[in-house]
Amino acid sequence: MSLKKIRDIRILLGFVFLGIAFSLLTTPPAPAQEDSPYRILHHDLEVDLYPPIHKIIARDKLKVRLLSTSVGIITLHLHQDLKVEKVLFNRRPLNFTSITITSAQSEETEAKIRAIKIFLPEGQPRDEVMDLEISYRGEIYDPPKESAFLRFVAPSQTTGIIGEEGVYLSAETHWYPDLPGTLATFRLVAKTPADWEAVSQGDLVSRKSDPQGVQTVWKVGRPTDALALVAGPFVVNTQKIGGVTLSTYFFKEDAHLSDEYLEASARYLETYSRLLGPYPFSRFAVVENFFASGLGFPSFTLLGSQVIKRHYVQPYSLGHEMVHCWIGNHVFNDTRQGNWVEGLTTYLANYYYDELTQGEEAAREHRRRMLVEYSTYINEDSDYPIANFQNKTTPQDNAIGYQKTAMVFHMLRRQVGDGAFFKSLRNLVKDYGGKQASWNELQAVFERSTRQDLNGFFRQWVKEKGGPLLSLENVQILKADQGYILQATIIQSPPLFDLHPPLVIESSKGRIIKILDVRKAQEQVSIPMKEKPILVQLDPDHHIFRRLHRTEMPSNLNLLLADPEKIVVYPAEEATQEKVHTELAHRIEKKEKAKVISDRQLNPEEIKTHSVFILGGPG
After folding, report:
1. Integer Cα distance of 74 and 134 in angstroms
2. What does DSSP assign to residue 8?
3. In the prediction, which pLDDT does 8 show?
4. DSSP-assigned letters across all residues of 19-65
5. DSSP 608
6. CA–CA separation, 497 vs 495, rounded Å?
């Protein structure tokens, strides 16, 4: 059966409402630490929070290892609005100064950071572990900013906030003095108002409450790349599963949803402990946030109120964030060489859970959707290797860093086999827990576990961009002495990939699957068969990452809007004075770079070669 390379015509009629969709993201990882003559080993933090006045008063006792005898200055980063009051070494004050530097928070925002330069006493020996005590205070109040895209929305963004609605302090806040990218252990004493609860990472060591406030003590005994602290007027519910404490921290109006989230967390905990090895923390908490978010931290996830109310217990939401407790928040991503974490987490949570619980038909449909998303959003200009993916800020990033990368892990699983694939993942968690890993370390783990040379696979799929476009053509069924011979040509459009697509042949006796080797622009196939083939399909179950033909893709709004040559048609004579359709057409033109014309200007020939978006009612 030949797949003709024709352009499909997409025409949508009627009103279109451009709304806001919600997207779950993990916290962006801190940049990997550059070579430095000193390392932070431990933070011992005491923090008092005053939400009504947005204030924090804090003291951090740091253990810093000197890796050189020539260290004279230690530079640490801190939030721009936090003022260091004193720095002590062996109870004696040290001189320090600060300058303001700018750091990119996202494509839309920049963060101002205070760089604290601490002048050390002369003659500190190499490998000395210094105890520094830094006292500081100030206000942190950056209200969340809604950031909306057509077809895609990132969570509300903020560099940090202390307010009556709640507290959110993350790595991007720089709420404690740190060296970016360092891996350290933590002890945190957090003091909040009465009837509030603080949540952080690791073990909850103790909690004390009195009329003046609540004090919780948290301990992170394994090195981690950042510490997060959130707080609010939460109702806490808890249950134990094995040795793991599951908790919900919900606002009072949503506390009745606790059991649903605890039960779902228990299911995911059981499933992924079998796949990836023992859960690496003593607790997992689902925490309600006062702004739109879907953020994963070591041992807890922070979900916005609207998400909580929508019962977001699905694998692609709650399950996704739990998988991050193994992948991303226990095995850390080395951002100097891209971000493999989101693609692997997407494969395990968003995709593989469907395969486990709903069977192959659901899995097949999920693979098809991943290919549709890549084929919809990615063209030659927007494509890049998945090794270059860092964070999701556009639909194109999502298509490459999440969907394509998940499909690459699917192909890797099929190449090495299920047993070797999941053994490799367990070895990854065991060997790199508390450490940073890049694509190179990931490849090395798989090669050791499978005893295979995977250099060609990772070079082609990780370091090079693009995806193959395949066609099955010139299909012939010839009569032979002992049955039939199926002949066909596999056409691969440049750039060429080394592929092993399945050819599925159906006859009256059932289904036969032949794994092909496709390396050239044209590959001839000749297969002897006893029964006459009825149907021949190339990769009908979507096991190979590839670019879909337009004829393989359903009509959808995203496909139309991603077309660089789309046309938006509005009625020349609006039925109302508001000119709703005309205004909407020009909004799309501005946002999506479309050609906008009235229905009187539409040339019927253009419909044959363009995606057409027609606004208006039956008239």
Report:
1. 13
2. P
3. 29
4. -------PPPPPPPPPP-SEEEEEEEEEEEEEGGGTEEEEEEEEEEE
5. T
6. 7
User: Do 505 and 527 form a contact (C-beta atoms < 8 A)?
Assistant: yes
Side-chain-side CA neighbours of residue 557 (13 Å): 14
Report how far Cα 512 is from the mean position of its chain's Cα atoms: 37
In this structure, are strands 141-142 and 160-163 parallel, antiparallel, or unpaired?
antiparallel
pLDDT, residue 470, reads 96
- Helix orientation angle between 418-432 and 439-450, rounded to the nearest 10 degrees: 130
pLDDT value of residue 76: 96
Burial (CB < 10 A; 0-12, 13-18, 19+), residue 217, is middle
Residue type, 450: T
E strands of 170-212, at which residues? 184-192, 197-199, 203-210
pLDDT at 22: 34
* Residue 547 DSSP symbol: P
Mean pLDDT of the chain: 87
Low-confidence ranges of the chain (pLDDT < 50): 1-33, 105-109, 148-156
Cα separation, 306 vs 292, in Å, equals 7
Q: What are the distances in angstroms from CA 513 to CA 187, 477, 528, 538?
A: 57, 17, 13, 10
Question: Which two three-digit tokens encode residue 321?
Answer: 């964030």
Q: What is the pLDDT of residue 417?
A: 96
